């Protein structure tokens, strides 16, 4: 026998995107089920919400994946071996800083701020995709530094892990400052400054 219920009157993908913006702005624990229901498709009932998404946790995972498939792609260039390693790092930093300070969506980075989205051990697994994404970005910076050393651009005495951490830490800091309202006009010259750390490790011509 067919189950009767409130017909879906919302676009499911649009609802996931709306949830993504809400989680991005407020974090996992601070976003209530009632807020999610109110924002999705003009508001849906609890039974309809659970029928569509299963749970708040499941919706967060979908929202996180939506972010990873779109906004988080700004750092994918770290793995593009067609780019010179320094250029790949610069592109990642500038693209990410520009995205994070764009007024068209919540400020900051959902991936970087994900460490605060589900801080308790109970919810740590919920944020696992964001944790994995942060690890991949760190590995991407290491990859670029190692390419620079392998090509002879960077000195063999370069501490590759430390140099990569400089760029990764800078990017994490951008997320906090963007959330505080710092704009790209500040980040742009700051990126120029931070890239001088790479240049200081170059093999002299």
Automatic annotation (TrEMBL):
UniProt superkingdom: Bacteria
Keywords: DNA-binding, Transcription, Transcription regulation
UniProt domain HTH tetR-type: residue ranges: 9-71
GO molecular function: DNA binding
Gene3D superfamilies: Homeodomain-like (1.10.10.60), Tetracycline Repressor, domain 2 (1.10.357.10)
Residue ranges of the TM segments: none
Residue ranges: DNA binding: 34-53
Statement: the UniProt record of this protein carries the keyword Transcription: yes
SUPFAM superfamilies tied to this protein: Homeodomain-like, Tetracyclin repressor-like, C-terminal domain
InterPro entries linked to this entry: Homeodomain-like_sf, HTH_TetR, Tet_transcr_reg_TetR-rel_C_sf
UniProt-recorded name of the protein: TetR family transcriptional regulator
UniProt source species: Janthinobacterium svalbardensis
